[in-house]
Amino acid sequence: MKKIPAFFHSSQLAFKPKYEWALGHRIKHPETTRRAESIFQALKKDEQCFELHEPQKIPLKEIRESHSYELMTLYQTAASLPDDETFYPSVFPQRLKAQANPSNLSHAGFYCFDSGTPLNNKTWEAACWSAACAIDAMKVVVKGKYPYSYALSRPPGHHASYDSYGGYCYFNNIALVARELKKKNRVAILDIDFHHGNGTQDIFYEDSDVLTISIHGDPRSYFPYFRGFPSEAGSGAGAGYNHNIILPKGTRYPEYKKTLNDIVFPMIRYFEPDYLLIAAGFDTYKLDPIGHFDLETPDYQKMGKQIKDLNLPTIIVQEGGYYTKDLGANVSSFLKGFLS
Ligand SMILES: [Zn+2]
Fold it and tell me: 40 CA to middle of ligand 1, Å?
């Protein structure tokens, strides 16, 4: 059995958000560098199962296909902030009535949908390397070197849309991969993060080449609040190619497994994708501070095995997961499911 290649670059740790504004409260930022370090250490100590690689720098044109010029300019504007400054948007204009200049950070709220996703002079660099992990994870699978690969993408990506950021996400790493693959292939994205993958949904909403499925907590109670309902099923050519599945607070693995077997896997098989992409969030863990399912560490290995049994080339891209003490063990458990 081949090892699973995992991609990570130390420059992803340069970005250190300290706090966020959550429903009016200033709280410690959950998206810390400790997350990536926890995963990296867990994979590193298991050399029999995992191979760690640094990704190559990616040309900006690979990001431009999935994100607007203005969004990228905004991050580059923030790159010239002094070291001790971090920008949190606090004014969010209604887009149809506003115009914005991405070279002016005061206009950041035009491109952002929450106050939990700060910009500083390291955001751009970390986000570019996070995207590079996903692209290189894709390349080794496309070349047929490995059936499965893992991108330790941090910051995460699934809340970022073509022209907006939020939910700790700047570039939609998994969408970059899907956009590249769909040039010649059919692609299915399964999002198993606790939160709805609103950015990924938006990017492929009118697309019939990319099937998007997200399993998540109820948006009436949890982020991203305004997206993720079953009625959002795609439009135009993409009608019927987006699926949102809501599970209740406290969901344990038997129910999650049944959802995969009875609802999700039949959809994927029917679509007949050439590649499967997993937006792998681990904030479904029972101790996660901002997720509210009850999955346990061994459950992730069972889930990985179930997904592996679909028998598709699979690229796994890291999303959320904020209980850093066990995050590495949870990621390792999930990936080992693909080796079992
Ligand atoms: Zn999440």
Answer: 19
Calculate how far, in angstroms, residue 197's C-alpha sits from the geometric centre of ligand 1.
8
User: Domain 4-17+24-58+123-337's class?
Assistant: alpha beta
CA 232 to chain centre: 19
Clarify whether 159 is annotated catalytic: yes
Ligand 1 midpoint to CA 279 (Å): 10
Q: Which two tokens stand for residue 285?
A: 């863990």
The model's pTM is 0.97
**Ligand 1 center to 91 CA (angstroms):** 24
Render pLDDT for 290-311 as a digit per residue (tens, 0 to 9): 999 999 999 999 999 999 999 9
Asked if 158 and 199 touch (Cβ cutoff 8 Å), the reply is: yes
Tally Cβ neighbours within 10 Å of residue 236: 9
Annotated catalytic residue, options 107, 158, 159, 196: 159
Q: Each residue of 194-245: pLDDT tens digit?
A: 999 999 999 999 999 999 999 999 999 999 999 999 999 999 999 999 999 9
